[in-house]
Design a protein that fits this description.
The protein is an alpha/beta fold. The chain has 6 helices and 6 strands.
């Protein structure tokens, strides 16, 4: 199995979310093929660019395929401040959310070799390389951590939609109530699980 990762938002937007989505590469490809065939989507699949109906359809395909996700969520107003009264940096929060979401998966993999694929678009490649090395150290011999251009990764694009969905809910956007209704069955079945982060060490 592969864990595909992407984030949405930031402290300046009121919240940051990080999704770690478990799918086989074949399942991710089949979801994309079906979604694009029905919707006619061209280009990169982004949660911020699709309609509510398209989002519901994609998440239904994800659920049918047996996809699962852990999503780490941090809301700015709930985050503990540093001793100086400041909030964590964007990078520190990103790393903490990533470690939290992936950390929830590792005990559940049962020693099965797991690859972790992380979107490479948010920070400088050198910074992301250090984060990748930290994840690789946690995986040890059980898998491989890599960075990927989201435009070329079906799984990372699905992770983007899930992260964006929880971001909308966290910041209580105009679409939040409808997105919540889409997600409710998957939250109830634990196909998607959410962990809230309120402190960054």
């Amino acid at each position: 199995m592969t864990i595909y990762c992407d984030e949405s938002g930031g402290l300046n937007a009121g919240a940051m979310t990080f999704s770690a989505v478990m799918l086989t590469p074949d399942a991710a490809g089949e979801i994309h093929e079906r979604f694009r065939g029905v919707t006619g989507l061209r280009g990169e699949l982004k949660g911020s660019r699709i309609s509510i109906v398209e989002r519901a359809y994609l998440l239904e395909l994800f659920d049918r395929a047996g996809g699962r996700a852990w999503v780490a969520v941090a809301e700015r107003d709930k985050l503990s401040q540093n001793p100086g009264g400041t909030l964590p940096s964007d990078l520190a929060l990103y790393a903490a959310l990533l470690n939290t979401a992936i950390g929830r998966w590792l005990p559940e993999t049962g020693g099965v070799c797991t690859d972790v694929v992380i979107d490479d678009g948010r920070y400088d490649p050198k910074i992301l390389a250090h984060i990748r090395e930290d994840i690789q150290a946690g995986l040890g011999q059980w898998g491989r951590a890599s960075l990927a251009d989201s435009r070329r990764s079906d799984g990372v694009q699905i992770a983007d939609v899930i992260a964006n969905s929880l971001f909308n809910i966290a910041v209580r956007s105009q679409r939040a109530n409808r997105i919540q209704r889409i997600l409710d069955p998957m939250l109830a079945s634990k196909a998607i699980r959410v962990v809230e982060l309120t402190q960054v060490d």
